[in-house]
Amino acid sequence: MKIAFVFICLVVPLVTAQLRVGFYNPTCPQAEKIVRDVVLKRFRTDRSITAALLRMHFHDCFVRGCDASILIDSTKNKSSEKDAGPNLTVRGYELIDEAKKALEIACPETVSCADIITIATRDSVALAGGQNYNVTTGRRDGLVSDPSLVNLPGPTASVSQALSFFTAKKMTLNDMVTLLGAHTVGVAHCSFFQDRLSNFQGTGRPDPTMDPALVSKLSTICGRPNNPTAFLDQNTSFVVDNEFYRQIRLNRGVMQIDQELASDKASAPIVANFANNAFGFQQSFANAMVKMGGIEVLVGKAGEIRKNCRVVNPPPTQKKSSQKRSRVPR
C-alpha cells in the first residue's frame, strides 16, 4: 500500500503537467470560441445551465477522473454512469453534444469531450458573474463508464465525511469548502432536505439549526407535488458570488452539508472568510476548479478522442472501414 501511494504521488504531477493553457492553438485554434458560443447561446435563454454544468463537471471528475465518462449513454446490454442514482438528475448533455458537433465540423477528431466539459463550465461560470479563469486542456476521453463506481458525498454527509471524498482525490478542506460554493447557483429537489423541514433525525420537528423563516418558505415549496426544487442560495440564485456563505452563516443553508460548513469548527473559518471577501472567494473558486479539472486525467495516447461524446469510438478496424466511406476532409 505504501509503495502504491508513493507511485501515485510521483506520477500525478507528471500527468497533469501535460495539460496546458492553449493546448488546441496549433490544431484547432477556434476550439474554445466554438464552445463559448454554444454556452452563450444557451445561457441567454437558460441561466440555470451554469449550475447544471458545474454539477456535471464535478460528477465526472470525482468518479474516474475528468474523462467524460459521465457522458456515455447506457445501452440495453450495459448501464453507464448516467444510471447511477446521483446522476439521474444531471443535465446539460445536449449542450455538450452541440459543441462537439460544431467542433467535429471545424476540427475532426481533435477536441476531447472531457475538455469540452471543462471549457463549457468555465464559460458558464464567467457568464454568471464568476471569474473568467484560464483552463488547461489536453485531456482525453475515457473508455469505461461504470455506474457501480459512482460514489459521491450525499446531502446529509458531515464535513468530515464529505472531506474524505475530497482528500481521496488530493483535494484539501479549503478546496471542498470552495467547490461547495457552487451551490450559490444550484437547486436541490425537496427529497434531499425534506426531513429538515418537519422530521429532523426522527424528532418530528424541523432542524433547529435552520432559520424558521426559511423552514416556512421551503415547506410551502415542498408541499407541491412531483418533488419540486428549491434554490440553495435564496438571494442571488443565478449569480456565482459569495452570497451562499453569507446565507449559511445566517442558518439559511438548505441542505444539511451546506449548513454544517458554517458550524463545523474546521470549515467555519473558511466560510467566514469567503462571506466577507468576495474577491477572495472568486480567486479561490477559480483555483479549485482548475485543480479539480486535473483529477486523474488521461493524456498523451491514453484513452481516445470521441467523435460522439455519448459513445466510445468503434474498434480501429471498424473505424477504418467506415472512414473510407464517409471521412470528413481535414
From TrEMBL:
Basic residues bias locations: 321-330
Indicate which residues the UniProt annotation says bind substrate: P153
Q: What is its main location?
A: secreted
Where does the record say this protein resides?
Secreted
Gene3D superfamilies linked to this entry: 1.10.520.10, Peroxidase, domain 2
Q: Which InterPro entries match?
A: Haem_peroxidase, Haem_peroxidase_sf, Peroxidase_pln, Peroxidases_AS, Peroxidases_heam-ligand_BS, Secretory_peroxidase
Cleaved signal peptide residues: 1-17
Name the source's superkingdom.
Answer: Eukaryota
Residues the record marks as active site: H59 (proton acceptor)
Q: Which residues bind Ca(2+) 2?
A: T184, D233, T236, D241
From the record, give the cysteines joined by S-S bonds: C28-C107, C61-C66, C113-C309, C190-C222
Functional note: Removal of H(2)O(2), oxidation of toxic reductants, biosynthesis and degradation of lignin, suberization, auxin catabolism, response to environmental stresses such as wounding, pathogen attack and oxidative stress. These functions might be dependent on each isozyme/isoform in each plant tissue.
Annotated protein name in UniProt: Peroxidase
Q: Which organism is it from?
A: Actinidia chinensis var. chinensis
